[in-house]
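Page 42, continued from yesterday. The earlier attempt failed because a stray header line got pasted into the input along with the sequence. Redoing it now with the clean sequence only.
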Amino acid sequence: MSETPYHAFDEKDKPNSDLIRDCVHCGFCLSACPTYLETGNELDSPRGRIYLMHSAVNGEIPLEGSLVKHLDMCLGCLACEPACPSGVQYGSLIEAGRSQIERRYERSGFDKFYRSTIFSLFPYPKRMKLMLPLFYVYQKLGLRSLIQSTGVISRFSQKLANMEAMLPEVDSPTFPAELPEVISAKGKQRYRVALLTGCVQSVFFSKTNEATVRVLAENGCEVIVPQNQSCCGALSVHSGRLSEGREFAIQTIKTFEKLDVDAFVINSAGCGSTIKDYGEILKDDPQYAERAEALSEKTKDIMEFLSEIGLKGELQNLDIKVTYQDACHIGHAQRIKEQPREVLNEIPGLELIEMPESDLCCGSAGIYNLVQPEMSQGLLDRKMGNVKQNKVDYLVAGNPGCLLQIQKGIKNNGLNIKTAHPVELLDWSYRGTID
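This time it went through. C-alpha cells are written below.
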C-alpha cells in the first residue's frame, strides 16, 4: 500500500505542470542566478527550485522546510529567463509557488506581523506620506544616527535594522506636490501619453516623476496624470500575494483604460514589468482578461519610449561620468538593455562607463532586502565591488528599489558617487543644470 502523498499545493494558482516540464535541467541558468552564485547550492538555482516545485506538485514533499526556504530565497530577478535555451517561464512558476506559501504556510508570529506591516504601508502612497513628518524629525534631530551607532535595532531584529537602513533621506516634512493632471507638450504635440506615478516613486522619488514629465513635454508629449492612482500590484505579485495583486491590477486598468493615449509610460522597473504582464496575471478573469492585455500592449518604460520616438529639443553639455545599473525588471523581465544606453549616449559631455556585472541583481528585488537581509547584503557587497571598478560621478538605474539599495551601499562604503534615474540626467541636460 503506497503512502498518502503530501498536499503541499492546492489547485488555486498552482504551478503549471506543463511549464515545469519545459525545464530540461541543462544548467544554463546556474551562472545567471545571483543566489546560486552566492551559495553554490543547487536548490538556490532556478532548476533546483523548479525541481522542488515538481516534487511538491507530485505530492512528494510537504509545504515546509526546503521548499519554503529555497523559494523564499529566490530574488525573482528573472536573470534565468534570457539565459534559458528552452524558454522556461520561470517568473510564472515562482510567483505561483510563492502564492501557495503566502496563502497556506504558517509563518512565525513576527514574520506574519512584519510582512503584514510592509504590505499595509508600501502599496499605499497616502499612508507613506503621513509618515514623512515622522521620518523627517527622526533624521533631523539626530535620532537616526544615535540608534544606528548603538546597533540596538539589529540586536532585536536584523530585518527591522535593514528596513531602517533603507529609509531614504527626507528633505522636507511636507508632502511632495501632486503633478498637474494635464501637462501640455512643448511646441508641436507629437504624442499623448499617460504616466503611472507609482507608490514609493511618488513619495520618495517625486523628483523623478517631475523630470519624467518635463522630458516627455520637451519631446512633444501631452502628459495625462490621473489623480488618486492606486498601486499597480507589482510588490504583491512578485511576493506571491496574487489575489491582492490582481485587485490592484484591476483598479489600475479601470483608471487608465479610459484614456485616449498613445502609450502608458512607466519609470519604475517593477511596475513596468508587472503591467506588461497583466494579460497573464488576469488571463482567467473573463471580465478583465482582454482589457488587461490591451493596457499591457500600450505600456512602455520611459527609456524604451524615448528611444522609440527619438529625442527632440536641445540637449546641453553635462560633463559627467556615469555608469548604468540594469534594473532586473527592465533588463531581464522587459528585455530592455540597449535603449537606456543609447539615450544616455545622446547627452553631450556624458561619458557612459560600463560596470562589470551591470545586470546582476543588487539585492533589492522588491521587498527582498527587507525579508532576506543576509543574502541581500551579500549581493549588495558584490555590487559595490563592481561599482568601485570605475571612477564615476553618478550611478543611474531605472528603479527606485535599486537606487535605495545602492545608496545604502555607497554610504556604507564611503564612496563619493551620487545616484539618479536616467531620465533625470536627460532633464538636467535639457535645463542646462544639475540638481
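Notes: The chain has four domains: 17-104, 109-165, 182-307, 314-431.
Reminder to self: strip header lines before submitting.
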